[in-house]
Amino acid sequence: xxxxxxxxxxxxxxxxxxxxxxxxxxSFSLGQERLGIVGESGSGKSLTGRAVLRLIRxxxxxxxxxxxxxxxxxxxxxxxxxxxxxGQQISMVxxxxxxxxxxxxxxxxxxxxxxxxxTRASRREAKAKAIDMLEAxxxxxxxxxxxxxxxxxxxxxxQRIMIAMMLIPNPKILIADEPTSxxxxxxxxxxxxxxxxxxxxxxxxxxxxxHDLNLVSAFCDRVLIMYGGRVVETCRAxxxxxxxxxxxxxxxxSLPRLDSPVERLQVLQREDAWMDSDQTSAGxxxx
Amino acid sequence: MNQAHTTLNDSGTSxxxxxxxxxxxxxxxxxxxxxxxxxxxxxxxxxxxALLGLCILVALVLIAIFAPxxxxxxxxxxxxxxxxxxxxxxxxxxxxDSLGRDLLSRxxxxxxxxxxxxxxxxxxxPVAGLLMGTVAGxxxxxxxxxxxxxxxxxxxxxxxxxxxxxxxALGAGIENAVLAIALTAWPPYARIARAETxxxxxxxxxxxxxxxxxxTLRIIVxxxxxxxxxxxxxxxxxxxxxxxxxxxxxxxxxxxxRPPSPEWGAMIAEGRRFILDHWWVATMPGLAIFTVxxxxxxxxxxxxxxxxxxxxxx
Amino acid sequence: MNEAxxxxxxxxxxxATDFAIEIDGLSVWFGxxxxxxxxxxxxxxxxxxGSSFGLVGESGSGKSTILRALTGLVKTxxxxxxxxxxDLGRKRSKDFYKQLQMVFQDPYxxxxxxxxxxxxLSETLSLHKFNNINDRxxxxxxxxxxxPQFRFRYPHQxxxxxxxRVAIARALAPEPSILLLDEPTSxxxxxxxxxxxxxLTDLRQEKNLTYLMVxxxxxxxxxxxxxxxxxxxxxxxxxxxxxxxRQLKSSHPYTQNLLQSSLGFVRQ
Lengths: 287, 314, 268
Prior knowledge:
The complex is a heterotrimer.
Chain A: E1 4-15, E2 18-30, E3 34-38, H1 45-52, E4 61-63, E5 66-69, E6 72-73, H2 79-89, E7 90-93, H3 97-100, H4 107-118, H5 123-136, H6 142-147, H7 155-167, E8 173-177, H8 185-202, E9 205-210, H9 213-219, E10 222-227, E11 230-236, H10 246-253
Parallel strand pairs in A: 3-9, 3-10, 7-8, 8-9
Antiparallel strand pairs in A: 1-2, 1-4, 1-5, 5-6, 10-11
Chain B: H1 2-13, H2 16-22, H3 29-45, H4 48-65, H5 67-70, H6 103-139, H7 141-155, H8 159-170, H9 174-201, H10 204-210, H11 216-252, H12 264-271, H13 280-307
Helix pairs in contact in B: 1-2, 4-6, 4-13, 6-7, 6-9, 6-11, 7-9, 8-9, 9-11, 11-12, 11-13, 12-13
Chain C: H1 3-11, E1 19-30, E2 37-48, E3 52-56, H2 63-71, E4 77-83, E5 86-87, H3 94-99, E6 100-103, H4 117-127, H5 133-143, H6 160-172, E7 178-182, H7 190-207, E8 210-215, H8 218-224, E9 227-232, E10 235-241, H9 242-246, H10 253-262
Parallel strand pairs in C: 3-8, 3-9, 6-7, 7-8
Antiparallel strand pairs in C: 1-2, 1-4, 4-5, 9-10
Helix pairs in contact in C: 4-5, 6-7
């Protein structure tokens, strides 16, 4: 059974020279799996993730035929009900933990606050839970981290804390928007395996938004490739290197590789045809 | 993306002046600059209130320029038989003051004095502040400490009190009032300029120009000033109301413009004695001060939306 | 093309060396006393003229700091720095900046937001006392694959890749023989990264440049560089030719670790 169904999602921004379609008719369904969304900047991948949570600020506009979470329609919910969904059923991890954690609050207090907001637990229970959670994200001296301020944490540590915080209410879906691109490669692997383990243990659905093709192909089960606000190709992650769409092929070929050196890298030749195909409705085109 | 650009440009060239201004591929330095200004103007125009502020100020400038033709009477001509005429009297639309001088004419001439004060303060205070702030911020070290402590000393006094002290030392008069206001107005500008300089000086584009062997003076003047000036202009327009009020305040206390000069603050001071029975004598110049201050504030708000790099991400 | 540099070297009567950059026991620190942080500790390596050398390491390993010490942007350093056979002091002359230039990491931060492409390049050229600046600006833009139609644009009218090309044009304006590249593609999309890397490859061949490149991306460094130094906590732990790195033949455990993680995520 699928957890999340998105059908014909559009995100539009009015500009001086007309309406800019940032996301144009994206449809996908998410089960208990790791779904990767890859694309370059401006492809609409981040906006897709935010639109599902209705986090697009006006004047941006979200329209869709359907966005359902376990059969419940998210489009018709009030802002208040939506806030509940955001905390308890769908959580989001952003790129840089520096901007997501409150700099003047101790890490532990922030986790406790996130926990008590959703449950009627006592402070002692909440603290125990917070320490549990910090241990779950492989933080060894959890007591010390509990009392620390965000600026005392490294990037990798901060991102683990964010993941701990987001997983406390036991959400069904985690949307991770470039969760590791601000981290060093070695830390990146650690954070990813922590996230991977937790998602699997809890049977969650994961939407993993990234620009890194290699990473997505290794980490996810299924991949959507986005270009110009549209999904141009969907494939199994382990089949990504056999992708057929010229855009996906172009992206793969433009990556330098350690194991196969070349004199010059292949350059992606963009084609207008990628911008519109059968899948899109008659849009105004980007301005 | 590129296709979009060329098509926009091609359709642009066919639309004459407007197309030239909105072309995405400027062909000369002038076009690039004009186009940047034009886009700024389009954005500014969208803000109705700011536009209203600008219109009021343009009107003020025009009134000041054409004062001799606009005013129905000589602003200094006294007529004791026509003392304290009410609003709408024959030949005196806004009435007359205690010496029978036409209030409307005096206010029209007073706009010249107001503009004179505003222009002089706007020339002195921000330039002094910009100089102090950017040098302190960029050079750092001892220079910074010394310059900023001087700024702190000036900031520690209430503005009007400091201005009073200056005027008392220099003697009353409009020029000295301006000087006193300017001397008390620059420290906040220095603070702003320094804060901006501190963020700018560690940026990559300043490093890059250092790597071309550019000297300190060039970096401050050509690279840091253009970025500080935007926020200073905003701050000045927002402060203008306060400056006009300070000038009026000095005039009111008899330390600014000397009678019989039709300075608005001095006019209020004169009208104060009759405020209960002849309210318009003090109210009319008060309304003028209010309108111009409001116009400057509206304009400043509009300019902030336009110029402040923090308010829009582009 | 490099008369200026050749003249400088001969005029000063320096011994002819084949090294573009020689770094001998370089240490760089920030702060004083208790707050002192040693960013680079006793780093040494040489770059033969015309070579391409990569510095890799994680954030905070001190790799960018070496570039900043070389350019004179960081003044608190100790040890021996030689560029084209000349010892460097704390102050750098304009002649020095004619030999060595740098391309910064983030093209969104390295261009002055209110200066057009034309202003940026003209100012650079006039600072170095070139004449017929107009022609040179157009030539530079053509060299980096932009074309003269970009000349009067402001940075906000350019994409990330186009901005980085402008930044490269600015670095090439004084006709240097050495280019320092500080993560020149890490802020760009992969397809744009390929374009910029190709441009850098071409420019190096055309103008016979020496590259010193810093990156956290081993694949990018492996693509552009012949020799690679691996840094950890301010120390160069290993210097190895790129072929050995490609075959994962490194002797230091940290390099092994780095290579493994850069090959991608492996599910345990």
